[in-house]
């Protein structure tokens, strides 16, 4: 009976991931180059600060121009991370790291124009993040009061809520956000190394200093007990090792892995949990340089990959009936895009060293990993039971009522009169499509049964975020160059 169940499970997994599932042509859903262009363009819609003359998301205007005045520091710029008007540095730094990692791993596969646009998107973040660490033993971690902001439905151009600045001063701990910020700088230094070596050096030098701050004052800056700090310290060290080739960071990974929880093998990857990404990143050292002292990181990376294979005995990742990776909670597509990125990166690492992953009775090849990743991409772009692209502006059918203030309220270009905090409620509650198309935005996505209500009130499904899009940039870059995996 057990053997029969295993056979049936394997057959179901094959049907989910390999056979055409829906009675329509998939050709229109696989314009990866168009999707890549739009996924990068999205970041222009999330910009804070003074917008440049070449701003392509033309319905946006300048916003947050007084950010930092309370602390006598220019904190303009950066990104609003989702559909609200707050700048949260923790997810912004992760977004930056993932955009930079996309360039490091897949930049050479990008069309030159899109590589330039990606570097512009990275620099919009790093220029801001450099301001947040410009004072000794202090890191600014947030701009904007979330309670006041979330009580309004207001364009960023009209913001009249408190732009409270939050900072952490030594010896108070901030190793989670500081560790991620160090990772963002280090990864970005690699992305800019050939095009702007002077800027790259500034980023790497700053990464070193910020990591020292993170490591010296260990602990999470947030009272949220779900947010740990050990993975960010290891993540920051791993990126500094990759960017600098300094052996001291190699020693740090070897000596601190156990105490900082590297062997917890938490099978998740996102802005508040770096474990799976950390293990994949460090595995490159093991695969290329036979760094056996780091073998535990590779073992954890292998274990993570095995959890993604439906026919594996260690599989515990849930899939929707239509084949989408699903994890309970909001913004599910952040998991699908981030996991797809790791699948592609690890597949490249393994292929270059002629290795596979042993999942007990199954051996997982790089091709298999890429097939699973491509299934997620195609689902997001429209190859799903609803025939809907979950990327706004891509294909003819996509979410029209996303949970996003600027997109849902008439543009300041069309309606220059001020729209106050509560005056925007009429647009929030409207059943009309959003007047401004936030091209390239990927929403939170459908439910576990593949259903999706196009409703801006349901933010868990209809809100886009920068950290959903960022890993998808690298994923799409890969499939622009390699469209025929499946």
TrEMBL record:
Enzyme Commission (EC) number: 3.2.1.4
Coiled coil: none
Reactions that this protein is recorded to catalyse: Endohydrolysis of (1->4)-beta-D-glucosidic linkages in cellulose, lichenin and cereal beta-D-glucans
Signal peptide: 1-28
MF term (GO), any: cellulase activity
Family the UniProt entry places it in: Belongs to the glycosyl hydrolase 9 (cellulase E) family.
Protein name as it appears in the record: Endoglucanase
Organism: Dorcoceras hygrometricum
Classification lineage: Eukaryota, Viridiplantae, Streptophyta, Embryophyta, Tracheophyta
